[in-house]
Amino acid sequence: MDVIGSHYGFPYLHASTVVEPAYEKPKSLKITVPVYELPAHVAPTGLAFYRGSQFPPMYHNQLFIAENGSWNRSSKVGYQVVMLKIEDQKVVSRETVVSFLDGEFPVARPFALLSADDGVMYISDDLKGNVYRLFFKNETNNDSTEAPQELENNE
User: Fold this and answer.
1) Main-chain phi, psi angles of 49, to 5 degrees
2) Do residues 110 and 124 make contact, with C-beta atoms less than 8 angstroms apart?
3) Where is the Pyrroloquinoline quinone-dependent pyranose dehydrogenase beta-propeller domain (predicted)?
4) CA-wise closest residue to 63 among 92, 42, 34
5) Is the omega angle on the peptide bond into residue 26 within 30 degrees of 0, that is, cis?
6) Which residues pair with 105 in a beta bridge?
7) Is 79 helix (H, G, I), strand (E, B) or coil?
8) How far is it, in rounded angstroms, from Cα 71 to Cα 79?
9) What is the Cα–Cα distance from 134 to 155, expressed in whole angstroms?
């Protein structure tokens, strides 16, 4: 993700196109723009590539992000774990894996992600101090090559 010597814009440029008028960018400065932009105020605090095998294949080697959430907005965003689906080394979609919003009320604020040796994922919560265990549950059979039935989280 990082290349030594790269400059990612701040404070001269926000995201890909928002020029900060308070600072003049040096003419010789080359800025590397993001390859993918998350929505404003989702507050990504943790990320992990899923390297386990307990989830179905569609989740393997995908990037999971803990979005801590927008504590200072009237309309809440974030408060979820999302997966950035990657194909041919490019992000092709952003999908919610588990949401911790009940309407506009956050019930948790995911902070960090960790894959365990058994293939489950743990999600830390800095709102209530919980750790959630995210795992795949297929009630029809144990063949993980089938279409995903359900990803569950439990405390």
Assistant:
1) -80, 135
2) yes
3) 32-132
4) 92
5) no
6) 102
7) coil
8) 9
9) 9
Report domain extents, the chain: 1-34, 37-154
Question: How large is the average pLDDT for residues 47-58?
Answer: 95
The Cα–Cα gap between 138 and 147 comes to 9
pLDDT tens profile 90-120: 999 999 999 999 999 999 999 999 999 999 9
Give the gyration radius of the chain's Cα atoms. 18
Asked whether 38 and 15 are in contact (CB, 8 A), the reply is: no
pTM: 0.83
User: Has residue 146 got a pLDDT over 50?
Assistant: no
Could you say which DSSP state residue 7 is in?
B
Residue 147's pLDDT is: 46
Kindly state the tokens that stand for 118: 């058994």
31, β-bridge pairs: 7
Q: How confident is the model at residue 155 (pLDDT cuts 50, 70, 90)?
A: low
The answer on pLDDT for 28 being more than 70 is: yes
Contact 110, 134 (CB under 8 A): no
CA angle 104, 84, 116 (to 5 degrees): 90
- For residue 148, what pLDDT band results from cuts at 50, 70 and 90? very low
